[in-house]
Amino acid sequence: MLKGYLCLVLHGHLPFVRHPEHENFLEEDWLYEAITETYVPLISVFEGLVSDGIDFRITMTLSPTLISMLSDSLLQERYLKHINKLIELSQKEMERTKWQEPFRRLAEMYFIKFSHSRDTFQKYNNNLVYAFKKFQDLGKLEIITCGATHGFFPLMDVCRDSVRAQVKVAADHYESVFGRRPRGIWLPECGFCPGHDEILREAGIRYFFTDSHGLLHGTPRPKYGVFAPVYCKGTGVAAFGRDLESSKQVWSSIEGYPGDYNYREFYRDIGFDLEFDYIKPYIHPDGVRINTGIKYYRITGTGNHKEPYVAEWARDRAAEHAGNFMFNRQKQANYLNDLMGKPPIIVSPYDAELFGHWWYEGPMWLDFLFRKVACDQNEIRMITPSEYLGENPRNQVITPSFSSWGYKGYSEMWLQGTNDWIYRHLHVASERMSELVRNYPGAQGLLRRALNQSLRELLLAQSSDWGFILGTGTHTSYAVRRTKDHLLRFNRIYEDIKSNSINENWLSDIEYKDNLFPNIDYQVHQ
Amino acid sequence: MARNGFMKRGDNPPFLLEGGGLMKMLKKLKEKLKKIVPAKLASLKTKKKKGPVKKTTACPPKDIPSFQETIAVNTKFSHPEDTRPRSTMPQELPSCYNQDKIVLQVRDPRWLHTYWELRNQTVEGLKSKLGDEFHRAKKILRVYDVTNIIFNGSNANSFFDIQYNDFATSWYIDTAGPGRSWCVDLGLMLTDGRFITILRSNVVSTPLDSPSWITDEEWMIPDDVFARLYGMGFGLGKSSPVGRGWQQRLKQGLFSSGISSSPVRKAVKERSFWMKVDCELIVYGATEPDAQVTVQGQPIKLRPDGTFTLRYYLPDSKQVIPVKAVSADQIDERTITPIVTRETR
Hints:
Structural class of chain A: alpha/beta
Distance between the termini of chain B: 77 Å
Order of helices and strands of chain B: HHEEHHEEEEEEHHEEEEEEEE
Oligomer: heterodimer
Number of strands of chain B: 16
Helix content of chain A: 40-55%
Mean pLDDT of chain A: 96
CATH architecture of the largest domain in chain A: Alpha-Beta Barrel
Radius of gyration of chain A: 23 Å
Number of helices of chain B: 6
CATH class of the largest domain in chain B: Mainly Beta
Shape of chain A: globular
CATH topology of the largest domain in chain B: Immunoglobulin-like
Number of domains of chain B: 3
Largest sheet of chain A: 10 strands, mixed
Strand content of chain A: 5-15%
Distance between the termini of chain A: 50 Å
Number of strands of chain A: 10
CATH superfamily of the largest domain in chain B: Immunoglobulins
Low-confidence stretches of chain B: 1-24, 32-87
Structural class of chain B: alpha+beta
Number of domains of chain A: 2
Shape of chain B: elongated
Order of helices and strands of chain A: EHEHHHHEHEHEHEEHHHHEHEHEHHHHH
């Protein structure tokens, strides 16, 4: 008998990193690693479930920047180059470890994995967005959108025109890719400010998510806590609250599943471990050692001594952990059902890149979980937010609280001594963008191109990823550079437009570099 | 002075800088100064708080490229420092935008952040109008509690002052007031105790840090049931007291770790000094380019010039490595067998 719903949400996002001006660009590896380690493994899980006739539901953000990169032909070519090199390296490794049996088997495991990754990538015409779309069209996956470039909305609250642009550009982009409007949105960093629901409503978005305290500290008190969505007062946009108990099991660095000693150790990579001349062709051309993705050890224990990974043991643990997760949701749903007198919805959102990239066995764990939920019990049912709202249209009306899922729950991660300097520049740029929209309505030709590019540059400067990296205080130079470059480009376009001296060559160059959102309309920034 | 984009909820400061308003204001103040009526303002009850926690300078911190990074630390997505040459565009953002503006933002239920910019001519204007009084005046941020009111400059629920130094252009403000609305004036406190507003910020509201006391009649729920749902929402099990949910939440972390760090635990370094030694074996040779070569019985590929290189991890063991070449016409054959022993002590 149905006791409750489980709503799994994976937030897939990477900042827009694309540098055609450089042959090799390290930060582009973020995308390539995520394709091999997260996106392809997830797609393979979905494929397996569909071919085995297992019904499942999952909700996933594909951020507009991620979609743009996955659809970009330059990055697609570069990914193939990247994965081919990895395949070559894994072949060399199979030979090198010939006298070291556990490692030879692992090298073979990576060879198979990388080859499969390339095959899957090519099967979908080098564009994995089509793969995700396929599962959305099958009704198994609900793809939601995000801020256009993952700007952190609460710190744009003084210039809501920019929040509106982030939402509208994202929703329009989604429609051009998936052929329908997005029903839901993952607010970047889960950052919600009361009032932004109005902007979501304008864009036709029906729901979003908040961290637990977004609902729990809302006004008036939410009757069912985070275990039922609420409608925002005045707009009727639904807000779903994050359940922390289920988050903790997966996410916690202390008690979470990913820390199991049989799971793969992330921090031992042959890019760092092997002899320099041998590994040199597979690391950065400048000789900077980087992760290759080939990692031979299991976590083993708390110390530095590591034992070789044993795939079968890890697989057994993933199955056990999936069973444990399901059991705990059943218990939770039963308890909440008694308390609430109706089936709760347990919303468990995670960063997609946790699965596979950080937690190597994550996709396998998901696979086991889907299969167990479908076959081994009937108390919990997986559901998407749209389905839930369709079946449960009557919900309480409250004003959720300002909140985020960042460090300490609000804005501090993006607003501290190391990154607060960016806002005076970002806010002026927003203000100037609104001024341009007011002063140049309905522009055409070169002027229109300049105006559209100015919005692209502004959006790119707003990515919360830069502020986040600055906030962590390590390896910040790329984030500083990106923030400044986009703002400098924006400022130049602004001056050029105002002085009626747009330099077409220069404009073409940055259109070529920052080529996302080809159909952008600058007039959404108002 | 396009500040409108930064003003929220229709709070239009009545006597701010729109179209020469500042000059008018200064004139009035000068007249007032002559009359000297300090008593009224000085007697206003002020709540002083220690606000200064951090100051920043007008210019963004210079980013100094590091050339020491030869090894990228293991982060999800590694970021070695970038030393590539840049285009000819200006590299630095302007240090100011020639605006008179103060912006207020919420950091969390308790803290606000404000930054501001004053045009030189505004400062010069003040100096010339106020004369010596300008230099004697204290630079003040006046923080108004404007919860549930339409603020007109004089009807705040309460306010407190923070003195800032000449170089500050931003400030973190401790309001200690979750669930309240705030507005900040940047101004001068004259020696006679009067306060002159130079800039007024937008209005912001801090969120609650505990459940709302407002309950919804239509959706009433007994307190004890809510207490349980509240604790459970934070993953605290079935019996956590309502008031402490958020504090517990903060303790257990579980915040998104973003793109550059891992939620997965990193092994602790036992001690900083370390060494590791390993051995690999390179077997190399050459024969006719069209010969067939096997090593330990396995066929290998020759380079176009007939050379070959094989590289093996060498464990503690004795390895017998017969390398056999057979000519393309199957007539000639050579076998050479290196024997290698590794022993680690």
